[in-house]
Amino acid sequence: MELRPIKTELDYQNALKEIEQLIDVETNSAKCDRLDILATLVEAYEQKHYPIEAPDAISAILYYL
Q1: Is the pLDDT of residue 24 over 80?
Q2: Which three-class secondary structure string do you get for the chain?
Q3: Are 3 and 37 within 8 A, CB to CB?
Q4: Residue 21 forms part of a structural domain
Q5: How many domains does the chain have?
Q6: pLDDT average, residue stretch 20-33
Q7: Is 47 part of any domain?
Q8: Which of 2, 5, 21, 30 has its CA 20 to 30 A from that of 13?
Q9: Any domain includes 60
């Protein structure tokens, strides 16, 4: 897969599949660099398309209790 911005759901799914394949690569290698870049691209896509809203104060307090 060519490294480029993730613009579609298909791009996103393909990036996730490649991350799964690269998850156990040796550190400080070209594949590790590729994994790092893919993870950054996926994170940016997820923040834009699947935002996680902060809980309201009461829900947060109840969660920690």
Answers
A1: yes
A2: CCCCCCCCHHHHHHHHHHHHHHCCCCCCCHHHHHHHHHHHHHHHHHHHHCCCCCCCHHHHHHHHC
A3: yes
A4: yes
A5: 1
A6: 93
A7: yes
A8: 30
A9: yes
Please tell me the distance from the alpha carbon of residue 65 to that of residue 41, in angstroms, as a whole number.
Answer: 35
Task: Pull the structure tokens for residue 50.
Answer: 């699947």
Tens digit of each residue's pLDDT (9 = 90 or more) over 31-57: 999 999 999 999 999 999 999 988 899
Which amino acid, one-letter code, is at 39? Answer: A
Q: Which domain covers residue 22, as residue numbers?
A: 9-64
What pTM value is reported for the model?
A: 0.78
Q: Average pLDDT of 16-39?
A: 94
